[in-house]
Each structure stands twice: as structure tokens, then as C-alpha cells.
Write a structure and sequence with these properties.
about 260 residues, alpha+beta, conserved putative lor/sdh protein from methanococcus maripaludis s2 fold, Elongation Factor Tu (Ef-tu), domain 3, 8-stranded antiparallel sheet, 6-stranded antiparallel β-barrel
Length: about 260
């Protein structure tokens, strides 16, 4: 049920086969080199792989021409304020008898497991979204939907199977029994975390995650990372290179193929 794992798992299938793309590109580069007339530049190797002493990693060194051909691009690892959120199902319910005087307001009940209840930042507002809305429409828009405040009610606070939020708006158009989606804030929201572009993340055959760092011009070294969760086009890390480290966002799969000589 954990949406973070689902998001990560869904993208694993897409990106774990990047080495296949690398094999095709490297093979194409080799074929192109064979077809060209010999000149001074063609005598030098487009890439050299050197073992990093004391590790099981290698250093990939590209020629300037190879880096240009692969259109290598990098971005820095950075610290960013991230807002963790999760979308779940909810239901509009009638107000308790003690609060029926406020005709504009409705409650939204969000059933959750005990484990999921512990992950929610219970004092922060949520967003109520209609079921008909496409997920992609509001993925990165925190203003979408209706603001719902956590219910300040003793019965609601004691609830162990659901959370309750109140929508107080003259334009909400919600009715009891209506099914909705609710974007919940999770614990740790608005904290500063280490992030990299998701395009920089590589998955190997064992499911381990890596990025290629660029410590010097034309030199690239694979670095293991731990991905906590994916937020849009960012990977939020629980472990990775220091902030400010340049990581490859375009060309990482080709570097992986070069390091392991895929396609030769």
C-alpha cells in the first residue's frame, strides 16, 4: 500500500535495463569509428577504464570527442526542502450533531492502517481532490483541490483506524457519502534532504542504485546511493555523495556500458 515503494518499483522496471541502451550506443560508436578514415583523432581511444585502487570500482575516462558525442550533462547533488505527501482514498461524512450549525463545513474521513497513521503529520492540513481528476494533473501542484484542516475533536484524536479533516468552504460542493482522494502530509515534511535528479539514478542487475560522479573533467566514477523515495523528477536520498558533487544526468547509461564493456 506504500505509494513511495510503488513509485520506486514502477520506475525500477523502466530504468534497470539502461545497460541495454548503452550496449547499442557503444556498438554504434565502434561501428562508426571503423567506417571513418584514419586520422590523428581516431588513433586515440574514445574511452579508457582504470581500476580505482582499493575498491571494486573503475574510473571511466572519456576523450573530449567522446564526451561531446555522448552529450554528457551533469547536475550537482543538493540539499533541498522537500514536502513528503501521499494520496489515499477518503469519504465525505456528515458533521457530528454538535457541529451541524456550521452548514458550510463537511468532514472527510480517511481510513488508514495503524502503521500508516504513524507516518502522517497529523497536525498539518491535507488537500481534498476529486476522484475524476487525473493523477498527473495535480502531482506537482500543492494548490490543487480543497484545503482540509485536521479535526480538533476529542473523538477524532482518539481514532485509531482513521483520520478526520474538515473542509470549511462555501464552494466545496461535497456531499456525505462522496468518495474523494486526499493528499496527506507525511512526517518529516519541509525538512532539508539530499536530492539528485531522478535521471541520474542507475539500477544494476541486483537492484542496487548508483550515480556517476564527475570529480574531474572527462573523468567519471560510479558511486552507490540509497534512494529513500521518488518525488516527481527528484530522487530523495538517505545516503549518497556530498552536496555539491557533480553527477551525470545525461549519458550515465553509456558510462555504465563502457565501464562493464557491454557491447564488446
Amino acid at each position: 500500500m506504500d505509494a513511495v515503494k510503488q513509485s520506486l518499483g514502477g520506475r525500477y522496471v523502466q530504468h534497470s535495463n539502461r545497460w541495454l541502451v548503452a550496449a547499442l550506443i557503444i556498438a554504434g560508436l565502434q561501428l562508426s569509428a571503423c567506417q571513418q578514415k584514419p586520422d590523428t583523432s581516431s588513433k586515440s581511444k574514445p574511452a579508457t577504464v582504470e581500476r580505482v585502487q582499493g575498491t571494486n570500482l573503475s574510473r571511466v575516462i572519456l576523450s573530449a570527442r567522446a564526451a561531446e558525442r555522448l552529450d554528457i550533462k551533469t547536475a550537482p547533488v543538493r540539499d533541498a526542502q522537500v514536502v513528503r505527501k501521499r494520496k489515499v482514498g477518503g469519504e465525505v461524512v456528515a458533521l457530528p450533531a454538535a457541529q451541524v450549525a456550521d452548514r458550510r463545513a463537511v468532514w472527510v474521513r480517511v481510513p488508514l492502517s495503524r502503521g500508516d497513521l504513524r507516518k502522517v503529520a497529523r497536525g498539518q492540513p491535507a488537500r481534498v481532490l476529486p476522484l475524476a481528476r487525473d493523477d498527473e494533473d495535480d502531482e506537482d501542484d500543492g494548490r490543487a483541490g480543497l484545503t482540509a484542516q485536521p479535526v480538533d475533536d476529542d473523538d477524532a484524536k482518539r481514532a485509531t483506524t482513521a483520520l478526520h479533516y474538515v473542509v470549511d468552504s462555501a464552494e466545496h460542493r461535497l456531499v456525505p457519502g462522496q468518495r474523494v482522494r486526499v493528499r496527506l502530509p507525511l512526517s518529516g515534511s519541509k525538512s532539508r534532504r539530499k536530492v539528485v535528479p531522478y535521471a541520474a539514478v542507475l539500477y544494476d542487475a541486483h537492484g542496487d542504485t548508483w550515480v556517476y560522479t564527475n570529480p574531474e573533467p572527462l573523468i567519471f566514477v560510479r558511486h552507490r546511493i540509497s534512494v529513500d523515495y521518488i518525488d516527481g523528477d527528484l530522487a530523495v536520498l538517505s545516503d549518497g555523495p556530498p552536496s555539491g558533487t557533480a553527477v551525470v544526468t545525461v549519458g550515465a547509461a553509456e558510462l555504465f556500458g563502457t565501464e562493464f564493456e557491454i557491447g564488446k
